[in-house]
Each structure stands twice: as structure tokens, then as C-alpha cells.
């Protein structure tokens, strides 16, 4: 009986993800506890990596139990977005026929023409700043969080109980992290500005390039042929077209799937392929990639 239980556990647990979660906590806790030279850089990378792990968890990994999976990423190392709220928005984002639509895709980086026309000068200025990658990395994390927070507060005040319930577990999750930081004498302002912000900036490199406006839904998601630092940080989500085709596939199986027939996948996503994130930085660090207003979909 014991052997059968152990065998079932081995089959139902995706060990690479489980180990990655444990390693992430080990790096973050060691960095903040020992505060060795350059510890803040390790904390930044662990925080960004944790966001990638949250993305993996919301897709049903590393176990078959939703509650176990959520418990594994309960502490809010990446504190800007409540996990359950992020989960619901991201799963809605995976409605591929509506991908990038500024009204139907909660992760769209485009604006509808009607909303652009009625936007105030400050909003337009922020959107223009965020067109190149550098602006997206510096201003984008806080601008996006402000829009998200304002929307959710309005929804909760209007009586949206579902969103309110999604926020409730986030407060103890953030409090747990803050309590640890206070105990190890890491200032909360330093944490927010020097760890959370740079980590969010790193993650915005992925979101900046992963989608484009295109007539065919399968042509809207990118393939970035990166096998190095960013591929690991993003848990192979640089192969984003493959992830949208097979969202239940764990991160560590995506590279082999792509290597099996790269020509097929490149043809399927309409040739939206870049050689690596170095190419993204060279092309778009100071130059916008896509128009602010969605060029194809609903205008109002």
C-alpha cells in the first residue's frame, strides 16, 4: 500500500516545478537573511522567478490539487497582484480568438481607438512613454498596477464580491512577507523600490514582446528562441506561441516540443519569431514596437 501511494505521488507531482519553487524560496530567504554582497540582485531574480512560478501554478502545476498548488506560492514575494485575481485574468487572456483585444483580453497592451480619443493628456503621455521597452520597464509596472488597482477598487465598491474575495487572501500573503522583512531588517521602502520594481521590470520584458495584433489568432503569440538567462527566468514562456497552443503543458517540456519541429511552429505562428531577447533590446529599447491603438479590432 505504501509503495502504491509513493508511486501515485511520483506520477502526480511534477518534480522540476516543485524543486524550482523550493529553490526560489531558498534563494530569496538566504538573500534577505544573510544579506551577502549583491544580495538584493539575488532577491530581484528570485522575485521575478516567483512570478513565473505563479504563472505555472495557475495553469495547474505542479500537483493535481489546486489547494496544494496555491499553498506553494501563498507568500506574496511578488506582491503587486493577488494570485487568485491574476489567475482569473490570465485564464481569460487565454481565450485565443480574443487575444490582444483591448476590451476582451485583460492583458492586452493596446488601447481601443475610442478610449484613446477620450484619454486625458497624462494618460496619453504615459502610454507613449511605455511604447519603447525602456519606458515599459521603468514606468510600465507602476502604470499597469495603478490601472488595475483603480479598476478593482471601483468594482469592489460597486458590489463585486468575487473580486473582493480574490483580494482577501492577498493581505495575509503580503503581511507574511513584510513580517519576515522587518524581522531581518530589510526596509519595506527598499523592498518595494529596489527589489519589487526591478523584478517587475524584468518580467515586463516578456510581456512586452509576447503578443502582437494580427488577423489570425494563431499569429498573435511570439516565439523567442532564447535558451539562456531569460528562458530560465520566464520558465520557457518565451516559447509563447506553444504555451498558448498547449497551456496545460509544463514549462520544462516546451523546448523539446519546439525542437521536434521548429519549422512547423514558426509556420503556425505566422513567422512571429525572434532570435533572442538581445534582439528585442536592440530593436525596441528606445523605439516603440507596436501602435498604442489596436489597429484591427473593436474601436468602441
From TrEMBL:
<keyword id="KW-0472">Membrane</keyword>
<protein>
    <recommendedName>
        <fullName>Fatty acid desaturase domain-containing protein</fullName>
    </recommendedName>
</protein>
<dbReference type="GO" id="GO:0006629">
    <property type="term" value="P:lipid metabolic process"/>
</dbReference>
<feature type="transmembrane region" description="Helical">
    <location>
        <begin position="167"/>
        <end position="183"/>
    </location>
</feature>
<keyword id="KW-1133">Transmembrane helix</keyword>
<dbReference type="InterPro" id="IPR005804">
    <property type="entry name" value="FA_desaturase_dom"/>
</dbReference>
<feature type="transmembrane region" description="Helical">
    <location>
        <begin position="39"/>
        <end position="58"/>
    </location>
</feature>
<feature type="transmembrane region" description="Helical">
    <location>
        <begin position="12"/>
        <end position="33"/>
    </location>
</feature>
<dbReference type="Pfam" id="PF00487">
    <property type="entry name" value="FA_desaturase"/>
</dbReference>
<feature type="transmembrane region" description="Helical">
    <location>
        <begin position="189"/>
        <end position="209"/>
    </location>
</feature>
<keyword id="KW-0812">Transmembrane</keyword>
<feature type="domain" description="Fatty acid desaturase">
    <location>
        <begin position="32"/>
        <end position="264"/>
    </location>
</feature>
